[in-house]
Amino acid sequence: MIQPAGRRVSSIMPTYVYAYLDKDGNPTDDCFEAVQSISEDALKKHDGRKVQRIPQAPNIAGKWSDIKGKSALSNKNLERLGFTKYEKRGDGYMERTAGKAGPRAISADD
Question: Is the residue at 86 inside a domain?
Answer without folding.
Answer: yes
